[in-house]
Amino acid sequence: MGDDLEKVLVTEEQIKARLRELAAEIDADYAGKDLLLVGVLKGAVMVMADLARELHHPAEMDWMAVSSYGAGTTSSGVVRILKDLDADLKDRHVLIVEDVIDSGLTLSWLVGNLRSRGPASVEVCTMVRKPLAFDVDLDVKYIGFDLPNEFIVGYGLDYAEKYRNLPFIGTLAPHVHA
Ligand code: IMP
Ligand code: MG
Fold first, then answer.
1. Residue 102 bears catalytic tag
2. Residue nearest to ligand 1 atom 9, measured at CA
3. What pTM did the predictor assign?
4. Hey, is 16 helix, strand or coil?
5. Residue nearest atom 20 in ligand 1 by C-alpha distance
6. How far apart are CA 7 and CA 13, in angstroms?
7. What is the DSSP string of 104-159?
8. Buried b or exposed e, range 119-156, using 16+ CB within 10 angstroms
9. pLDDT tens string 79-110
10. Which residue among 3, 4, 27, 102 is the active-site one?
């Protein structure tokens, strides 16, 4: 995949170190509480797998798949559930685990949807936040990296379903987009 890449923004080592810090915060914040991690497929698979293994908390994991309709690659905020959770959220502490928050529209819909199910709390952990996310009223408690407004791939993030399996986060060479 090397020829397709432009630059590495976050290395494998940086991801691992940052996840360890976030896991320590999450362990402290949820000590003694029942915690359900909700991963958003497919992008959050890598961060969920690595974050969960850094936790000492006996957290449960569940998964949801959503699709946001919009023109081309931009998110519209109109979301459809492709796969719903197995777990009942009533009175549970829910932590949504995301790969990236770009416009934030998908996530703000998801937070609202999960809040309507009667959980004890809903918080968000994202590997990457991009600057557009500030335009949406969304409280993100755990953030891996704040990155500039560029299209990124790797560590779960795809371009046309590819590059998810890169162990780092980077940008694509212009010839790949074209
Ligand atoms: P939103 O704009 O915050 O609603 O983001 C919706 C979805 O778009 C994310 O969950 C990702 O799947 C995808 N996405 C946003 N930015 C990127 C990117 O830079 N690379 C790959 N996927 C992205
Ligand atoms: Mg996502």
1. yes
2. 100
3. 0.93
4. helix
5. 152
6. 16
7. SHHHHHHHHHHHTT--SEEEEEEEEE-GGGGGS-----EEEEE--SS-EEBTTB-B
8. beebbbbbbbbbeebeeeebebbbbbbebeeeebbbbb
9. 899 999 999 999 999 999 999 999 898 899 99
10. 102
Check whether 70 has a pLDDT greater than 80: no
- C-alpha 118 – ligand 2 centre gap (Å): 23
The pLDDT of residue 1 is 76
In the structure encoding, which two tokens stand for residue 111, read together? Answer: 């937070």
Cα separation, 36 vs 94, whole angstroms: 5
The first and second tokens of residue 59, run together, are 């957290």
Is residue 167 within 8 Å of residue 9, measured between CB atoms? Answer: no
pLDDT in tens, 4-28: 999 999 999 999 999 999 999 999 9
